[in-house]
């Protein structure tokens, strides 16, 4: 359908008991979405629960496995890193909206989201992404271009956001986020990713009225 991800984004799609590239619906008013464009997309496609709630290790492993062909050992590491977002002690799940809390996992200088200091820190922000795209100078994005965009966002935030926060932990997660699209649907060896696919993924081709739900 019109809003479905290109089939090439669904690398190695297994016989999907849940979710498909052909089904897509944005989150409704009772559904949770967060700052991660990929987790939101997987929920919109039903690879993760459409309501964005109760994401257990099993649900994340199945969703990232079916949707992206991610290896279970990698998704377990990612899941365990995400559990800190759930304020309950010894939590065994998280909800997508828990990821929105600033300076837990969500951080400043995102590629497509505003700093919390300036406004909403978790919905797609066209103004922010337009500045990021300035550094996408070819049809195939190299790691240098992706890093240039990220470094620009950091300089911009450091210059204009008096509350700018960027810790070593933020840096580690940011490196993962910058390379994640190449891992998911680019060339994992060279780190090169197709610009059209990356921009589609971030939601720039979605109708403005829907863009806050898309990713
Ligand atoms: C359990 C799995 C995952 C968790 C808990 C997670 C969590 C997050 C969080 C909290 C952010 C917000 C960071 C910020 O403030 O910008 C984020 C951003 C991001 N995530 Fe994920 N993520 C997961 C998996 C993935 C996967 C598989 C991809 C593959 C493409 C991905 C791609 C991204 C990208 C590209 C961003 C950066 C968005 C931006 O800078 O605007 N994530 N993720
Ligand atoms: C996947 O499908 C099973 C059986 O149809 C269902 O019980 C489960 O809730 C679904 N999971 C997700 C993540 O949609
Ligand atoms: C969350 O999922 C687990 C495992 O599927 C289930 O046992 C639990 O009842 C669910 N919790 C809620 C609040 O739906
Ligand atoms: C959380 O786990 C720790 C270590 O296993 C345990 O000591 C503690 O009682 C648990 N807390 C809750 C609220 O279950
Ligand atoms: C987008 O981000 C810019 C820069 O942080 C901010 O000024 C603007 O209010 C944001 N737009 C929306 C719709 O939140
Ligand atoms: C401001 O900075 C402090 C300290 O780093 C941080 O705890 C807080 O979440 C930040 N608030 C915003 C809106 O950026
Ligand atoms: C991926 O990048 C590697 C290293 O540059 C290259 O050898 C390989 O041909 C590329 N694969 C594809 C499918 O383009
Ligand atoms: C990027 O992907 C799009 C959509 O699949 C495709 O049409 C285009 O040819 C690709 N660009 C390059 C440079 O491979």
UniProtKB/TrEMBL annotation:
Domain Heme haloperoxidase family profile: 20-215
SUPFAM superfamilies the record matches: Cloroperoxidase
Entry keywords, A to Z: Heme, Iron, Metal-binding, Oxidoreductase, Peroxidase, Signal
Lineage: superkingdom: Eukaryota
Signal peptide positions (record): 1-16
InterPro entries reported in the protein's UniProt record: Chloroperoxidase, Chloroperoxidase-like_sf
Family listed: Belongs to the chloroperoxidase family.
Protein name (record): Chloroperoxidase
């Amino acid at each position: 359908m019109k809003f479905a991800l290109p089939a090439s984004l669904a690398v190695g799609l297994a016989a999907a008991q849940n979710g498909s590239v052909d089904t897509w619906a944005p989150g409704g008013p009772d559904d949770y979405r967060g700052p991660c464009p990929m987790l939101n997309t997987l929920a919109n496609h039903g690879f993760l629960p459409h309501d964005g709630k109760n994401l257990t290790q099993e649900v994340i492993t199945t969703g990232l496995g079916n949707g992206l062909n991610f290896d279970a050992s990698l998704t377990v590491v990612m899941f365990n890193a995400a559990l800190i977002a759930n304020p309950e002690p010894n939590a065994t799940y998280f909800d997508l909206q828990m990821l929105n809390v600033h300076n837990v996992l969500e951080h400043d200088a995102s590629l497509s989201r505003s700093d919390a200091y300036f406004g909403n820190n978790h919905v797609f922000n066209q103004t922010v992404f337009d500045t990021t795209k300035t550094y996408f100078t070819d049809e195939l994005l190299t790691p240098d271009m992706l890093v240039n965009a990220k470094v620009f966002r950091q300089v911009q935030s450091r210059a204009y956001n008096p509350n700018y926060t960027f810790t070593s932990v933020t840096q580690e997660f940011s490196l993962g986020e910058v390379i994640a699209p190449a891992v998911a649907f680019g060339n994992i060896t060279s780190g090169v990713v197709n610009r059209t696919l990356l921009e589609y993924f971030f939601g720039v081709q979605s109708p403005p009225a829907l863009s806050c739900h898309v990713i």
